[in-house]
Structures are given as structure tokens and as C-alpha cells.
């Protein structure tokens, strides 16, 4: 969820609560004010009634247009109570509807007899006034809320424009392109300082990337040449018939060590190139088809170890990979399945749209499965193994939106490559 969306939701919830409380408070205040005005008018009418009774010592029911405005009823003396206000409903004889009234009840002696006097005033206009004012206030607050959010959205869009521009430039930044990120200098101090930090980081990363790339290229060229020369000279010495058995053994050891160094050098340089994303020619690759083809090309080795192949390719497993890395990944998978297999075992290939699995029979795993993809972690003790094959596979998968997992069940070792779903 975006920051502005989260902020707007919190602000909206808070505003709605405040506006609701304000509406309730406004309604109660208006109601109290109007009720106070009605009660003051009833008290005025009470004083007029008392003055009229004192002047005449009698009361005559004078007709009113509003029915039941004043009602005088004789009561026993012990029924007298202090004056009180109350709400009541009276049936309108014209409309046959109940009309709300505010009523003042008090007790007045007339000609020596206690009378209960009820003075009523209609609240129809009062309720209508309260309703109109409340509705008007709600409409006003609603328009104010909508206008505030509209203005906030426009203002936030302008204020955060530089931030989203910086974010877009960072997403599109490519170390291998050699182009500077070239961030803008916005007016807002915090965003300008943030861009300055990002700019310095990007420049430093590009410098380190160029230095590392130059090192790997130089190392690849400068180390491979003397290693190739050493291997060539050692091969010539091995063919010399004048060497003793001990000398031949020493030279063969030197030759094996030289070849091992060469393979280590190639593997480490390849890992560095993959990490630095120096392979940029990604293209759709059918890994299941490429893996099946690689197994076919290894037919002689498979026959020598008496390994059987079982393929279940339901749907081709296609991914975006540089062709070179795809071939390396497949080769390392197949070599691992053959090298750690047992004589008379089998290799099984399964493929779906989102997963590719290569399984092989084999012995019990010596090391922890969690450390199987670490560099220089070897299951085989043979001189040809340098412990980088699975590390290269993991690095290729991590760099190109894939995951690889290892599972072992009853002597079946399974490596599964899965597409990372967004």
C-alpha cells in the first residue's frame, strides 16, 4: 500500500469520526438552544396566566387556533407539585396526526381551588428547523470533507512528484549501462538531501562496478594465459620417456593441480560476472528441452554407468536467460546428476509450466542440505570436483527470477527450479 493511500485512509477515518461527533454535538446544542427559547416563551405565558388570574380571580377558556394550548383542571391539594417541563404528543383533529408539543405543568389556586395548568407549545416548526439546520450542516461538512481531500490529493501529487520521479529513476538505473542516474534537485529540502545521498551511492556503485568488471576481465585474461602455458609444458614433460616413475608422478600431480586452478579460476570469474549482471542478452529459453537434449548428448556416459532416463515433460518450462548461462545451468545439473548417481541408477526429468525437476538416485547426503549450494561445498572427494557447480546454479537462478530447491526422499535426490511469481 502506498504511503499517500495509507495516510488518506487514516485521515478519512479520523475526519469521519470528528465530523460525526461534531454533527451530534451541533444537533444537541441547537436542540438545547431552541428548547430553551420555547421554555422561556412558556414561562412568559405562565406569568401572563398568573397575572390574568390575580386580576380576575377566575379563568375562562379562551379559544385558540392551536388546540389544547392551555388546559386548566381542578385537583386535590395534595396532588400539587412543583412546575416541570415535558414533551407530549397530541392528536391534530384536522390532519389526524400526532403533533409534538413542549408542555409546562404548574399548579395555580383559582377561587380557593388548586388547579393543574398545562401550557403547551407546538414543536413542529422547531423540529423542522433542527432538521433543516442539521441537514445543511451535514451537507456543508460533506462538501468540506470532499473539497479537503481533493485539495490534499492535488497538493500531495505536486509535493511528492520529485519523490516518485526519483523512485522511477532508481528502478530504471542499470549499473552496466555506464549512464549516470542524474537525479534532480527538488525545492523540498528533505527530498533534495535524499537525492544527493542516492546520487553519491549510485556514483560509488558505478565506480566499484567498473573496477570489479575490469578486474574480472584482466584476471580472466592474465591468469588463463600462464595456466594454459603451464598445462601445455606439463603435457610435454609427461610425454618425455626419460623421466623416472617418481618424476612422472610429480608432474602428473602438478598437471592435476594446474587444471584444478584453471577450473577454479573459470568458476569464480563466472560467478563474479553473473553477480555483476554482465550477461545482458536474455532471451526465451526452453530449459526442459535443453535439459533433455543435454541428457541425449551424454548417452555414452549414461551407458557406461548403466543409467536409465525417464522424462515427463507435460508443459515446456520456458524462462528468460542468456543462452550461455542456460547452457551452463543445464550442464551443471546434468553433471551433478551423473557424478553423484550410482551404477544402474536412474535420472528422472519432470517439467510443468512453472517448475522443472531433475532427480537422480544416489547415496546418503554427507553434508547438511542447507549448505549444499555454498561455494566450495563438495559431496565428492574426487580431484575433478571444485565445489562450485551448485553455487553457479544458485547464482544464476537468484539473478534471473528463479529459485532452486533440493529434496531427498528414500535415496532420490531432487533438484527443482521454480519460477518466482510476482
Automatic annotation (TrEMBL):
<dbReference type="InterPro" id="IPR005467">
    <property type="entry name" value="His_kinase_dom"/>
</dbReference>
<keyword id="KW-1133">Transmembrane helix</keyword>
<dbReference type="InterPro" id="IPR036890">
    <property type="entry name" value="HATPase_C_sf"/>
</dbReference>
<keyword id="KW-0808">Transferase</keyword>
<dbReference type="InterPro" id="IPR003594">
    <property type="entry name" value="HATPase_dom"/>
</dbReference>
<dbReference type="Pfam" id="PF02518">
    <property type="entry name" value="HATPase_c"/>
</dbReference>
<feature type="transmembrane region" description="Helical">
    <location>
        <begin position="12"/>
        <end position="34"/>
    </location>
</feature>
<feature type="transmembrane region" description="Helical">
    <location>
        <begin position="129"/>
        <end position="151"/>
    </location>
</feature>
<keyword id="KW-0472">Membrane</keyword>
<keyword id="KW-0597">Phosphoprotein</keyword>
<feature type="domain" description="Histidine kinase">
    <location>
        <begin position="218"/>
        <end position="422"/>
    </location>
</feature>
<protein>
    <recommendedName>
        <fullName>histidine kinase</fullName>
        <ecNumber>2.7.13.3</ecNumber>
    </recommendedName>
</protein>
<dbReference type="InterPro" id="IPR036097">
    <property type="entry name" value="HisK_dim/P_sf"/>
</dbReference>
<dbReference type="GO" id="GO:0016301">
    <property type="term" value="F:kinase activity"/>
</dbReference>
<dbReference type="InterPro" id="IPR003661">
    <property type="entry name" value="HisK_dim/P_dom"/>
</dbReference>
<keyword id="KW-0812">Transmembrane</keyword>
<dbReference type="InterPro" id="IPR050428">
    <property type="entry name" value="TCS_sensor_his_kinase"/>
</dbReference>
<dbReference type="Pfam" id="PF00512">
    <property type="entry name" value="HisKA"/>
</dbReference>
<keyword id="KW-0418">Kinase</keyword>
